[in-house]
Design goal:
Elements (H helix, E strand, L loop, with lengths): L5 E5 L11 H15 L4 E4 L5 E4 L3 H8 L3 E2 L2 E4 L11 E4 L8 H7 L5 E9 L2 E13 L6 E4 L2 E4 L1 E2 L60 H16 L3 H19 L11 H48 L1 H9 L11 E8 L5 H14 L3 E5 L14 E6 L9 E6 L4 E4 L8 E8 L5 E8 L7 H8 L4 E7 L15 H12 L3 E3 L8 E2 L6 E2 L2 E6 H4 L3 E4 L10 E6 L12 E2 L5 H15 L7 H19 L1 E2 L19 H19 L4 H31 L6 H12 L12 E3 L2 E3 L4 H12 L9 H12 L12 H6 L16 H5 L3 H17 L8 E8 L11 E6 L2 H20 L16 H17 L20 H10 L4 H11 L2 E7 L2 E2 L3 E3 L10 H8 L23 H17 L7 E6 L2 H8 L7 H15 L3 E6 L9 H13 L12 H21 L23 H12 L5 H7 L17 H7 L7 H8 L1
Parallel strand pairs: 12-13, 18-19, 30-32, 35-36
Antiparallel strand pairs: 1-3, 1-5, 2-3, 4-5, 6-8, 6-11, 7-8, 9-10, 12-25, 13-15, 14-15, 16-17, 17-18, 19-23, 20-23, 21-22, 24-25, 26-27, 28-29, 30-31, 32-33, 32-34
Helix pairs in contact: 4-5, 5-6, 8-15, 9-10, 12-13, 13-21, 14-15, 18-24, 24-25, 27-29, 28-29
Amino acid sequence: VRTPPVIVKLTDGNSNFRNISIGQRKKLHEDIFRAAGETKDSTILMGGDLAIYAFDEDQQSCLLNMKSLQGRPVSCPLPLSSTANKVGVIFGVPTSDSVEEIQEALADQQVIQVKRLPIRGRPNDPSETVLLTFSSSLPERVKITSMSYQVQISVPNAYRCIKCWRLGHTAARCGTTLDICKKCGKSHPQERDCSTRCVNCASSTHESSCNECPAYSEMKKVLKMAYLEGITVSEARSRVASLANASTKRIARPSNQDFQPPPEISSLQAQVLALKEEMRLLKESVIPKITKDIGSLAIELSETKNKIDHFSTRFDTWTTHLITMTNIPSNNFKCIQWNARGLSKAKLKEFRQQISILNPEVVLLSETHWNSDFAPKFKSHHILRKDRPNRLGGGVAILIRKSLQFTPLPITTPDTVEAIGVSILCTNKKHIDFISVYIPKDDCETADIELLLKRDNDFLVGGDLNGHHSLWEPNGAENKAGKSIYEALINDPNACLITPPNLNTRIDPASGKSTTIDLTLTSSPLSTSATINTGPYMGSDHLPVLITLNATLYRQIGRPASWILDENKWLLWNQQIENQFCNRDFYSINVPQVVTATFIEAIDSGNILCFKKTNPSRQPYKGQDPARPWWNATCQKLVKEARRAFRVWKEAPLCPNKRTEWKKAEAKKRKTIISAKKLAWTTFVSSLGPNDQPKMWSFVKNMVGKGSIPAVEGYSIRMNNKNHNTPEEKPELFLSIFSGVHPSGIPKNSLLESRIVNGLIAQTPNRLNDAITFEELDNSIPKSKSKAVGLDLIRNEMLKNLSTANKFYLLHLFNRLFASGYVPEIWKSAVVIPLLKQNKPAEDPNSYRPVSLTSCLGKMLERILANRLHWFLECKGLINIAQAGFRRGCSTTDHIAQLDSYIKTGFNQKKCTVATFLDISKAYDSMWIQGLMYKMANLGITGQFLGWVQEFLTGRNMCVRIGSIVSSSTPIENGVPQGAVLSPILFNIMLKKFPSVHPGCFEKAWTLTAGSSIFTAELNGILQALKHIYNLDDHPPEVIVFCDSSSAMQTVASSSLSDNEAVTSTRELIASLKSSGTGTTLIWIPSHTGIDGNEKVDKLASEECGNQNSNVTTNRLSPSEIISTIKSNWAASFLQSLRSCQKSYIRMRTRLGTIKWHQHNNRKVAICLHRLRSEHHYLNSFAHRIDQEADPSCRNGCEAIENSQHVLVACPKHEAHRPTLRQFMD
């Protein structure tokens, strides 16, 4: 490896190595030999310095330590190009900082020299650019006080002598004694005219001092290559020359004009020559470098191999623990900080798309403009938010990737500052605090900022701080917020501002002026390796800030294993299972344990053959947020066009046309995105089917913005003033909480136990104990698309796709288990998942409810037995009549309607209605198993059915799973499992003796509302009879109601809508009776002929009519009854007014008589005659009566008023029809 030369410079200023004699050079060479020995080579450079090449690094070190030669002082540095990696440049350093202050601040960062450069063209004015010389290689960043600066390699300008104007040396090293003219390159008096000629490239187009000179440009390329690649200037010069020659040869034309080869041959020759030259260059420059790198890699590979051999046992240990340890490929992770200026509608949709592309770990949002009615959700991120409570606007939020472990921070801020924080766990058990801040106005105090920066952990505080200061805006005016931030940084030695000067995070939409008000402050350890820059335009006047930090975050470990199903392999899957059953002669196996194990093994063999199993150690939420279905190519195109228009306007902010184009592109983008989502929603709604209720409700929740429920995997759980962060701690914590609610140690009651034993051994025939039929099995196949599985990993989708032959095998399994009263142990082991209750704090362990995941195969058998139990209890009326929960055909609406009826009845009777609401805490978990078995035995549930349920509820155990981490198992003595199919109906049995209202005898008469028709009276009679039957404790299997109104019964039996309230109530009551096992039959008999008790009914009605204290019921009149009542009242009132009228032209007659032409058999003709007679017609005279501005004249041009007389008698337009009219009148 060639070492760079040592440059020996004479520093006494008398002469250089070119001007001394040979004898003096010989003496100097002898001193060099005595100091370092015989050297490899030496040469005198153009500037007069001596370059000495050493054999090795030891000899080079001796040369570098020389201080004098022959008594003359010398300096012996390396070439500048070889130390390029030690000289760096930083930008944006305030001019108020002196060189001495910068040198003192950087003394502990291996900086040995500081130099501030002047402004170009103004040598007396210092600039904000500073050169730093390091004693070692360049770092990525340096820190001055509280500011972090990025360090770049410094490449010097090419040397140009101002005496001779040649390149490569300075005036101090120039050998000429004459002043050379920079215009012509010769020495002559100044008053003499001369022609232009460059001394470096011999061109007559420019002077020797021109910076556009080709030779000067080539020299700059040489220096840049030397400094960036770490090679000598001479090597860089030869490489640049070789590349230039190769390029020239590639396009050069042949010099021989006599012979003109074809163009194709000339082109091929040129290409061959160019390839040869490139091969030569590769051989001379690239291949030696590659060989050097291969040698280095070989050495490193050998060292690595030795390390692996030395630590082989340690690596083996690490491999076994990879599943339980966090393993990410890089320590760097990305954050986004953004002022959204309202994050909803099209902007929210675009933001979701960018999140899926950028894939950040943490997002700090400010000015979200969210409120309590709007709750967006992200599939791959948790949301912590703090909305502005008392006015519009504002709001801050933080998005945290769901695989991270975090704890919300309690942050108290004044009204002038909005902030929310979260602490995220790292692998070293330390935390990093992330705080999103928004300062609406520039009115904040230093203490407010110091409160945010005062952290025990490393921190990142970012947001729109609305602060202006020369520290990050050198040319901007300072405000109060900026001064407060600056003072807080000065007062806190651990806080650093990593936002570089003039980052320009906000662009004023009106003026186009750029400012830096979105700031990022971190602790010192995070600032040294942090990088920060602006991201793409996303619809706000603030650009997102992309931050990269160097830290290893603690991530959640994997997901539970499951089978990845392939829809195209169900046939092969069924064949494999059937072959397994045939080979084992499945029908001949009667031992329940063996038949269960055989069935599960057959299912597993089919799964292994046809499906893939997921890796439990895979990282959850590792992928990006999935792209939205409405995001199409048009949306993507318009987003790009809006960003392009924004960039064009940003370059010329004062141009109104470009600003208008940007605004139009932005509006078009928003409109298209919203239209695309509406179209996607419309398509989704049109695709819904009759069995898509779960899909529909999920869609409705997304529409109204219910948001996502926080998962326990990410949240830190706090209990007894201690935080539980890791997935290994939380399952055991929840296991102790969930298992503690199950009662234990309850002594057995011998009386109850004897009754249970008698029920188990009872031989009384019972339909509940019949063998399970194929129809029952087929009806119990799960229709749910849920992917939740138990410990056997059998999914609902597998059971739905079983072939008919395999279903018969499953039927054999169920019958064996049911007949023997055996429940497999794997079916009694519940995997409990904690789910957060709505509107509960996520850090409180008591805010979670347990959901048990049990075997889908066991749930199928539970469903069969639950159907039988429902039938048995409903048919025999063994369920409390007031119980509406967990009953088919009943729901909470029944109780709401009943409560509404009680309240209205109380209002009508001017009485108070009192309701008592009872909440049974931990109802399923605390159920007494022995008491439940006793009640079931008393209800007639005996034999093997009772035995199977007892076996199902006893000997159970539970464990808690969070992610892929499963806690230890603990036994459960009492309680029914959450999520089991049998649990709701067993709970209803436990509530059998719950108090209810018992009605008395039914013998009653009512007085209906005045105006009720006979039809309504008949309907209310039927309704009251059915209500009496419905309120009985013991429901009869059949009810017959006799009525003499055929119209009432036909209306009730039909499906047409009716405006009579009694019809709707009667239909609903009949349906409720049917759902409870009571059939209703309506029979019509004329005048109740042959029905005993008719006289009693008539007597009750007669007594009710004559009773002054009658039982009045308020029934609602139908619209027709209301109209009829109003008409009757009006007719009576009008007739009474006529009778009492004393006017002479009103007379009373008993017989009116009729006018012949006033009547007609055709209704249309009769209506027309009536309208003509009463002047209520469509002629202009009637229109003028209604609207005085309407024209009453004839529409045919006559000047007369258009009334009945004019049309029938006078209008010439209808003269042709009058003979027919006269004939009709005669």
